[in-house]
Amino acid sequence: MRKKMNIDEIQRQLKFYQIDGWLLYDFHGSNPLALSVMEVPEPVLMTRRCFYWVPQVGAPSKIVHQIESHNLDHLPGEKKVYFSWKEMHRTLAETVQGAKSVAMEYSPNQDIPTASVIDGGLIELIRGFGPQVVSSAPFLQTFTCLWSKKQYAQHKEAARVLEEAVEGAWRGIAAGKLTDEYQVQQFILGEFEKNGCVTEGEPICAVNANSADPHYVPTQDTCAPIQKGDFVLIDLWCKKKGGVFADITRVGVVGEPTALHEEIFAIVREAQKKGTDLIIERYREGKEVKGAEVDQVVREVIEKKGYGNYFTHRTGHNIHTTNHGPGANLDGIETLDDRPLIPRTCFSIEPGIYLPGEFGVRLEYDVYIHEEGTVEVTLPPQEKIDFASS
What we know:
The protein is α+β, with helices and mostly antiparallel strands. The protein contains nine helices and 16 strands. It comes from Candidatus Neptunichlamydia vexilliferae.
């Protein structure tokens, strides 16, 4: 049974941000964010343009094509049915008349690509009716990625599966039973299946120089052996069916780590902790913290140690029913994500240093902010580079 769309909360957010209304739009599934907010189930055909207008004050309204006039019947508000594009334009103009600002899934300069899915032509059309089009990104998280208590519990279950799977993989490596990257990957996938979990893509097991490629994925035909003295990175993520994801990365050495292994590990762990501490401190003080701010603090640790050019990706990503969720990312380098990290959302913190031709260290754990502001690292951090010692 679908929950009722919270119009009161939407209007509260619009009032807070001083926006006159929110125009949600979809065509052929082009705006999954709007579909999520409007709670349109996947089987519903969305082959014609539809709109849902929520003004800051007053009743919402829906604009639908006559062929699919029932698609938004589950939502409150007056139904306005159009047939021709001229009727659609006229109805839209009448609907937003008097509004000075209209929020849509748009991001100025495409600063936040994940929140910028409305095409330029539609933005031109709405602007042509008089309003300024502004971004819904500041409040979109509230309606797309907050976790329920059940989802938090599902995350913890998935995290436990990840922890047990990676520990089992290290034991298999140390015992000589898992002798190449592909075997480790397949072992982890087997653990997911055994525990009723699913994943997106496939886990990463990367040895030596392969670990210096953040998106390296082994296959049966292209995988490296694992031998004594090798550095190994394992990145794995999963969720219980119908749940939300957990995502971690661990590193180890088959034998004794070198001085350089130890140095790089220590820097990455310091950076990870620094970012986490910033979030905890801000919440303790009752202050906002933005994703880009955390990325900057983490990046500064690595840059001051002389390895800034070897940290080649953002610090973290939102986690939801997809592993890379729609909420704020810890990113001020690939994109400029100035959205706040808000309660009841989860995200990864995963700095890395990648030395081409040698090895790469990435440490990843997930952070959940509870409703009352408690910041939780949902699995214990890796503190030493000795998981695969034998």
